[in-house]
Amino acid sequence: MRLEGSCHCGAVRFSLTSQTPYPYMRCYCSICRKTAGGGGYTINLMGAADSLRVHGEDYLSVYQARMPGGEHSPARRHFCRVCGSALWLFDPRWPELLHPFASAIDTPLPTPPTSSHIMLDHIAPWVEVFAGEEDETFPEYPEDSIEEWHRARALIVD
Q1: Domain layout of the chain by residue ranges
Q2: CATH of domain 2-152
Q3: Cα distances (Å, whole numbers) of residue 47 to 2, 3, 16, 39, 93
Q4: Contact 28, 141 (CB under 8 A)
Q5: Mean pLDDT throughout 108-135?
Q6: Is 69 helix (H, G, I), strand (E, B) or coil?
Q7: What is the pTM of this model?
Q8: Cβ atoms of residues 146 and 20 within 8 Å
Q9: Which of 67, 92, 124, 145 is deepest in the core (most CB within 10 A)?
Q10: pLDDT band at 35 (very low <50, low <70, confident <90, very high)
């Protein structure tokens, strides 16, 4: 599925292909919450890094979070330096993947049958988790990857 995305001001537009476009995983870690999450969490999708096309590349900035031990995360969070919109995450440990933030996607996304609420050991005290009966909750990262979650539910998209 071809995903089209953009920042709020329109300076950056991008597209990529994704076989896993269901926005099901809500991450409550402090990095996601503080860099992209308006409701105390953010939702990452997954796509093919080699399919990324960007217009307005000059308006991109990158943030690498500082981890609790003081070192920088290898993950690179891309955002618009004009309006601050979070756009995607790229981690060189998995160079074939790119993780756009669902909030930056303009293409209508399919509705997930359930949600996974992850990193709940790091949730902000003011955030309420509204998990449905079928939803899963995880104190840290789940074992299943985004692809495995989609595959287990027969939701891989061409």
Answers
A1: 2-152
A2: 2.170.150.70
A3: 9, 9, 6, 24, 15
A4: no
A5: 94
A6: coil
A7: 0.92
A8: yes
A9: 145
A10: confident
